[in-house]
Amino acid sequence: MNIPQWAATVAERFARRPWWILAVAVAFSVLSLWAVSQLPVYTSRQALLPHDNAVAARFDGFLKKFGAASDLIVVLEGAPSDELKTFADELAAALAAEPEIAQATARVDLDFLLEHAYLAVPEDRLKALAGALDRLAGAPIPSDASQIDAALDRLRERLDEAPAAPDAGIDIPTAETGLKLLAVLLDEWRRWLAADEVPAALDWGRLLAGQGGSEVANEGYFVSRDGRMYFLFVHPASASEDFTTTGPFIEKVRAVAATQAAKTRAAGRAAPKVGLTGLPAIEYEEHVSIRHDIALVVGSSAGLIVLLILAVVRSWRWALVIFVPMGLGVLWSLGLVLVTVGHLTLITASFIAILFGLGADYGIFTSARIAEERHSGKPLAEAIGAGIGASFQAVFTAGGASVMIFGALATVDFPGFSELGLVAAKGVLLILVSTWMVQPALYALLPPRLQPLPVAASAREIKPGRWPYRGSIAATLVAGSLAAAVFGIVWGYELPFDYDVLSLLPKDSEAAHYQSRMVAESDYQAEVVIFTARDMAEARRIAADAAKLGSVAKVQSLADLFPPDADARARNARRVGELAAAGAYAAKAAGLAGIGLPDRTFGRVRAVLERAGDFIDQSQELAFSAGHSGLVAALEQVRERLDAVRAGIDADPVRARQRSERFFRVLLSAAARGGALLEDWRRARPLTPEQLPPALRDRFFAADGTVAVYAFPAKTVYDPANLDRLMQEIYAVSPEATGFPATHQVFSKSVVESFTHGTRAAVAVCLLWLALVLRSWRGFVLASMPLLIGGGWMLGLMALGGIRYNYANIIALPLVIALAVDYGVWFSQRWFELEDHSLRQLNRVAGRVIGLAAGTELAGLGAITLANYRGVSTLGVNITIGLLCCLSATLWVAPAIGQLLDSRRKP
């Protein structure tokens, strides 16, 4: 007995014992439901990454030592700067009190850093500062307006004298540094003179540019370059990136921010706009969107498939005998996942809708053949067995091809694709089992009406007509179709890949919006490179080398607080503190700030500015003659700022005096605070990690002594050229670097390489399977050519439409191969079975069934295009294009191919 006859016998027995079969199916389903209830769904991106390489191992090692690698970033904007600072501080305090949050940082602890700033100052600079304070001890400092006037008169007389030559005992580097500082102060003075409104404070970003980073310049706050966006870095308490952890974490941050905004408005203050970004926010949006889309797609695809079947066959029994076996097969396959793969990921969970579309094909093909056998007059049970047997080879060939294709995907390195291949292969296999097992029993209990589906018997009643695919017309059509397919494959081979993960998110994604703005408008990114060092000496080396990289915008490290000569620096700092306290400079600066700037004093200031211009000109000539180009440039900067200040004063002397008085008061108050800070250095000592504030200690030190250094990329890491350059330079600094950019580079390369390997393997095994099973070159050509031609057209249309591959839709081509192989296989079988039928009759018989099968796939998969998550929706678009191309090739090109293979066939 051959296999189709054996299948017919078994199916007939199932049809004669339907309740037993359905009881077994229910038992399997109950067991599968239990397994599905136990099946974990891993929503973390880490579940999709290969974990058998060094990059993944380094990242996992960092997570074990430091916890979560990525912070949630809270963005504040849309309020005055003072309001943003207040809200940032209040929100950080509120967030830090929540159990889901380990840290919430709105600003650097400047007090701590400034108290220990001596550790970041070279020893020779500290000695120089001590010497300057020592010399200043004997210099009189004005204590009232008259003394200030006298000091300005002496300065004006000094400027009338000829400047000293640069080589006359002048420390040129120190002179250049002093002149640059003077230029910055003059530029800030000019800002106060020219502003429409009196500035509220000094612009520390301008004053300290290059002297300690944007945090120091902005009172420790993390801000954008224009100062309009403030950032809070929120570190989760759990290192898990699974949605069961990140979901409550994100929702807690939103709730706390909303509560704080309400309190702010109730207090009569302006509440800023709050946004979330960073990898936790991106992954949260991904999961929420995909979860919503899966529910939408599964529900709508199931509904559309049922509606389509009901609309075509006009019988709910037809819908049940097709839909129920397919649904049970999907359920069983999900249950089997628990004992095979052991979990679902976002990719494999999304595949349910594809199984719905694919699985309905087999039920349509078998039920159509059962209907033909019933039309021939066979009893119901016998007709069921005969229909299953007659369709067995085609369904086995098509289903086996899909299993082989998905099995080929299971061999790739990228776990996201390999697990998809494994889950899908078993899913197709169990849908086939369910179709051959459950459909006969269900059909026997609920036999549908016969008239809706076209069958071979009724085809004989169709009058033969003139079929257009004859002779040269058929040859031209086939040649043109092949040429278009070849061109499509060539163009499709060059389709670009979009590496930007943000482009997969919904169009209105808050996380993508703010992440893009952070890259463009600040020195911060969510995608940070992480270096780990065994000790502080290695951390210092890494921080210094990383800061020199052109691909790095900012380096965060505590290496400056732990210099190798910390004892010597602390000793010199204590000397500075003693001199500052002895000179009482803080009190004297505060006293000067209270004096103000009377008219007579302001007149002397203007006179000094006049003399200073000529003095600078003479100094420039001497510096130029001596060949000190750096000194010449520094003097030129001072001269430009000096001219700008004088122009501002001359434009409105009265307002200029008032603005200048305010400026000097604020400046001297800042100097008083600086003097007080220097006095505190009398207690200077080297630091230990245990003395750090908890936020700094936990971020930069692990329990085993490992030291972390963080580097923010200068450009987006979603551009492969930027990413490759960044990681090349990063690995030159330390081969042990990790973080999202490192894992993303592996991720992106694994995806592209796996797609290439998986697609080639899918095509190869599909063709090999067809050749082995069909064992006829004509059958092989008829079964495979629609698929190859349709696939080529698909690639060509994607190229013409400007569609790019991305991490989600790149799998579309192998999926289309697995989905559309059914069309050619069914057409090929019907071609040889209905040899006495004309081409027109054959196309009516086979084409209607193929069209219904394709319609169910399009109904199931076309719904994916409605997804909010653009990664899923673009996958649906690509699959829809592919299925339509393969369907068109089957219905219009396959008959022409058949005509060329058998020219004796009646048209």
Automatic annotation (TrEMBL):
GO cellular component, one term: plasma membrane
Keywords: Cell membrane, Membrane, Transmembrane, Transmembrane helix
Record domain Membrane transport protein MMPL: where: 216-472
Ribonucleoprotein listed as a keyword: no
Compartments in which it is found: Cell membrane
Transmembrane segments: 19-36, 294-313, 320-339, 345-365, 386-410, 422-446, 467-493, 781-801, 807-828, 849-869, 875-897
Topology of the protein relative to the lipid bilayer: Multi-pass membrane protein
Main location: membrane
Protein name, UniProt field: MMPL family transporter
Biological source species: Methylococcus geothermalis
